[in-house]
């Protein structure tokens, strides 16, 4: 990144300098709470800067990028009989908000930003797990192969390449971004990080954003990202879901059911190729899908199937997802559910969901998580009605 343009400090720079100083002070107070909170407000910061600016002989400079002031310094002379020719830069006389490539030395500060973000998120959604080690959460994503990103005092953003069925995209994971103060700053961070990703040939980007932070979501939307998927959660319990009689028998699935499970998988994939999903994922064969069921289903997973007139018409799979900022160690993930096309709208999914939620509660899982694609109309309408609340949005952008 080239250095900022510089010019002399002027009267019209006081407001911009005040914003920079207030932001610097907010960051300082995160590390030393005994500092006065007053200077976190731009008005108080402006008064301190203006006092220096009005001093006889005061002078200084600002740094600019794209017309925005990103740094300033102000110096004032003191008694020459004591100090000789001199200029002093007092505590309110400088601040900078430069975006730099993220390095290991930034991880502690990034962890503090993530911890603050997650606490705000948990206030909005108490089912989210506590974050015991924010540094470990940040470092796990930072150590991913090919990871890169940027850091500024009030925010960070980094991602890593992810290969998904023949396509490589740059993914910003759940712990891959956080910012304090004005959420608009995230747009600046992306402007720098995204430039590098595109230069490296990565034109598809996605990011997981806490859904409760409307200003942050809006900042990403104004970067031409769109809502691609939802990560959601809800409570389990004996009466968490009303019993529903769909005229089906629900039982645990066995290896004998994998052929039918593969059939339902194939029907769901085919349905998602139609509008408005327009999925271009290559279709697997029935044999390939059956083999996946046999190879990938763990003893810790729980499969339920719904039968009507002796035929399997729906399934639901529960999975013990590894813990992260969304998934508590005691939670269970509703990893997959599908109903054959002829039975959709007859209550099969509702009966399976009620059964699975009750099973989860009885087996020590107080929270259930799930996810769905926004363009899957059935899923995006069905799961919120079943009590699932959005915790994260996965936003996506493809640059032509």
What does this structure look like?
By secondary structure, the protein is an alpha+beta fold. It folds into three domains: 5-96, Aminopeptidase, CATH 3.40.630; 100-223, Gcn5-related N-acetyltransferase (GNAT) (Aminopeptidase, 3-Layer(aba) Sandwich); 235-388, Gcn5-related N-acetyltransferase (GNAT) (Aminopeptidase, 3-Layer(aba) Sandwich), CATH 3.40.630.30. Helices cover 33% and strands 28% of the residues. It contains eleven helices and 17 strands. It has helices at 14-31, 42-53, 80-83, 107-124, 134-142, 185-199, 214-221, 258-271, 286-296, 348-362, 377-385; strands at residues 5-8, 59-65, 68-75, 94-96, 100-101, 148-152, 155-164, 167-172, 177-179, 204-210, 226-235, 249-252, 302-308, 311-319, 332-339, 367-373, 389-398. A hairpin with a 2-residue loop joins strand 6 and strand 7 (155-164). The longest helix has 18 residues, at 14-31. The model has no long low-confidence stretch (mean pLDDT 94).
Protein topology:
Layout: E1 5-8, H1 14-31, H2 42-53, E2 59-65, E3 68-75, H3 80-83, E4 94-96, E5 100-101, H4 107-124, H5 134-142, E6 148-152, E7 155-164, E8 167-172, E9 177-179, H6 185-199, E10 204-210, H7 214-221, E11 226-235, E12 249-252, H8 258-271, H9 286-296, E13 302-308, E14 311-319, E15 332-339, H10 348-362, E16 367-373, H11 377-385, E17 389-398
Parallel strand pairs: 8-10, 15-16
Antiparallel strand pairs: 1-2, 2-3, 3-4, 5-6, 6-7, 7-8, 7-9, 10-17, 11-16, 11-17, 12-13, 13-14, 14-15
Helix pairs in contact: 1-2, 4-5, 8-9
């Amino acid at each position: 990144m080239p250095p900022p343009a510089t010019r002399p400090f002027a009267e019209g720079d006081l407001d911009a300098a005040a914003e920079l100083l207030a932001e610097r002070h907010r960051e300082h107070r995160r590390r030393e709470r005994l500092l006065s909170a007053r200077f976190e407000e731009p008005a108080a910061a402006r008064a301190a800067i203006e006092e220096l600016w009005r001093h006889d002989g005061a002078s200084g400079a600002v740094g600019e990028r794209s017309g925005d002031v990103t740094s300033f310094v102000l110096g004032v002379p003191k008694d020459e009989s004591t100090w000789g020719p001199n200029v002093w830069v007092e505590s309110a006389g400088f601040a900078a908000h430069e975006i730099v490539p993220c390095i290991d030395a930034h991880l502690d500060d990034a962890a503090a930003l993530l911890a603050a973000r997650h606490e705000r998120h948990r206030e909005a959604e108490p089912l989210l797990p506590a974050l015991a080690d924010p540094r470990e959460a940040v470092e796990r994503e930072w150590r991913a192969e090919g990871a890169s990103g940027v850091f500024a005092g009030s925010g960070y953003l980094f991602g890593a390449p992810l290969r998904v069925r023949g396509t490589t995209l740059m993914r910003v994971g759940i712990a891959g971004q956080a910012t304090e103060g004005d959420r608009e700053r995230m747009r600046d961070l992306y402007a720098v990080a995204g430039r590098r990703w595109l230069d490296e040939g990565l034109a598809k980007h996605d990011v997981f954003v806490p859904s409760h932070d409307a200003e942050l979501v809006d900042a990403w939307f104004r970067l031409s990202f769109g809502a691609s998927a939802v990560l959601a959660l809800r409570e389990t319990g004996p009466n968490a879901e009303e019993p529903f009689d769909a005229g089906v028998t629900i039982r645990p699935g066995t290896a004998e059911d994998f052929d039918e499970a593969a059939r339902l998988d194939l029907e769901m994939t085919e349905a998602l190729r139609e509008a408005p999903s327009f999925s271009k994922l290559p279709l697997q064969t029935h044999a390939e899908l059956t083999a996946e069921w046999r190879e990938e289903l763990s003893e810790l997973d729980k499969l339920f199937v719904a039968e009507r007139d002796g035929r399997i018409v729906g399934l639901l799979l529960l999975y013990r997802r590894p813990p992260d900022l969304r998934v508590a160690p005691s939670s269970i993930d509703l990893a997959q559910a599908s109903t054959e096309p002829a039975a959709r709208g007859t209550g099969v999914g509702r009966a399976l969901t009620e059964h699975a939620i009750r099973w989860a509660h009885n087996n020590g899982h107080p929270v259930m998580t799930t996810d769905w694609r926004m363009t899957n109309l059935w899923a995006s309408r069905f799961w919120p009605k079943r009590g699932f609340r959005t915790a994260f949005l996965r936003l996506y952008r493809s640059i032509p």
